[in-house]
Amino acid sequence: MSMENWEPVKKLSSRSKLGTVWMVRRSKNGQTETGYFKFSNLKNERYVGPLPGNELLAYHLASRLHLPAARVEVAKIEGQLGIVSLARPVPQIYKWTQLNRRIYHNISSFILRPERLLKMFVFDIWICNIDRHGGNLLVYPVGEKYDFYLIDHGLSLLGAVQWQGFSWDHPHWDRVVGYNRNYVRGLTKYIRNYDQLEPYVKEIQRVSYEELEAAADSVPLIILSHENKRVVKQLLLSRQKKLHIIVQKWIKDYKRTRKE
To answer: Which domain of life is it from (predicted)?
Structure first.
């Protein structure tokens, strides 16, 4: 947990219901690190619940699955307690939406280990991420291809539940096209059938309850209460057990909506 040393650089525009994001910097081991600071207040908690807790837990879960996600740590800056999402120290970073159109049509040729995008897709379904889009999938060149990493998970887990107003165990969350129509450009064309997604469904279903519990319990109580941890464990365990059913239903629903 890093509670100091970060210095605000500027406040960035943000959707008002999600609160303000600060760009911050610090010097560590002779290197300058840049991050993006988010914190909760009574106003945005009405809409997204424990936003820093959602972000930190999603990061822990993504790391367990070896998904490339921005490192997230707890920080206290100018009296505000929240989380900092660290930017990768690479010369050039783009949003997925800034890539050339030909890349969207040929993901396997231009993206390093593109199967991780499939795992990301299943992971987002598991954690009820209602806000994955080309703006929170960051890419950077590596030779003639691009690598990527994930950011912004505030509207997942309890954030999604609070934002859309359905309890975690409501049937609403079993139908992905009913709660989320945001797709990373080109990804749905890359997904041809359930067989492509099944290995990642099974990988998530192999995560033990002890590991889920440890991930939730590792989040400090000051940003994720005992009650919130109890609820989020139930959410994750329930969705994990029926993840294959939810993903298969998305395949059928998406194909049907494409025909309509």
So the answer is: Bacteria
